[in-house]
């Protein structure tokens, strides 16, 4: 008898959000965030309800709890005038890693993007996450070498605005400029 679970992948609907929230919360904790189950559920609920993202999840056998997910966000390319999808999140619980689960979720993402006529999928991963890099490259993703990506944290600007409103200045707060 085969003890290997049969994996199923489905697109998340609103009724799936409550079951996905604990998994999403563990994913966030994996990246150093504090647990916020209510916040995780509200975030996923809004994303699904408002079509801000598309989530695929994997479960074993008869619709048991989810064991992995990927979340895609739509964006556009002005140059090609086509849709792109950002594969923002990919997470598989430790017990199902190295069994093709991540690859199956990547394939679900690829099929979804292709079905929308998108130019492609893009993702980012930590420079030291060699395991994920191998998975992505095995699935056909290529490391971007033509462009550098930058990030502007608006939280820094928000903190400075608060200081200025409270009577502080950059000079008084130890800023050099």
Report on this model:
There is one protein chain. The protein is α+β, with helices and mostly antiparallel strands and 177 residues long. The chain has a single domain, classed as Aminopeptidase, CATH 3.40.630. It is built from 5 helices and 5 strands. The chain has a 5-stranded mixed β-sheet. Helix 3 (101-115) links the parallel strand 4 and strand 5 (120-122). It is globular, with a radius of gyration of 20 Å. The N and C termini lie far apart (70 Å). Mean pLDDT is 88; it is low at 169-177.
CATH superfamily: Gcn5-related N-acetyltransferase (GNAT)
Question: What integer is the average pLDDT?
Answer: 88
Could you give the distance between the termini? Answer: 70 Å
Regions with pLDDT < 50 over 5+ consecutive residues? Answer: 169-177
CATH topology: Aminopeptidase
What is the CATH-assigned architecture? 3-Layer(aba) Sandwich
Protein name: N-acetyltransferase domain-containing protein
GO molecular function: acyltransferase activity, transferring groups other than amino-acyl groups
Pfam families: Acetyltransf_1
Organism: Paenibacillus solanacearum
């Amino acid at each position: 008898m085969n003890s290997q679970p049969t994996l199923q992948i489905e697109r998340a609907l609103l009724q799936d959000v409550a079951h996905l929230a604990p998994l999403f919360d563990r994913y966030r904790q994996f990246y150093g965030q504090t647990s916020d189950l209510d916040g995780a559920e509200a975030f996923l609920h809004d994303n699904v309800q408002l079509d801000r993202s598309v989530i695929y999840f994997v479960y074993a056998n008869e619709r048991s709890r989810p064991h992995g997910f990927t979340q895609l966000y739509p964006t556009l390319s002005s140059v090609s005038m086509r849709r792109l999808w950002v594969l923002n999140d990919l997470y598989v619980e430790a017990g199902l890693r190295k069994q093709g689960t991540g690859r199956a979720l990547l394939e679900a993402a690829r099929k979804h993007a292709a079905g929308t006529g998108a130019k492609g999928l893009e993702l980012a991963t930590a420079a030291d996450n060699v395991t994920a890099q191998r998975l992505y490259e095995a699935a056909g993703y290529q490391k971007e070498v033509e462009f550098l990506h930058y990030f502007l944290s608006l939280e820094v600007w928000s903190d400075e605005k608060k200081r200025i409103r409270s009577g502080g200045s950059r000079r008084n707060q130890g800023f050099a400029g």
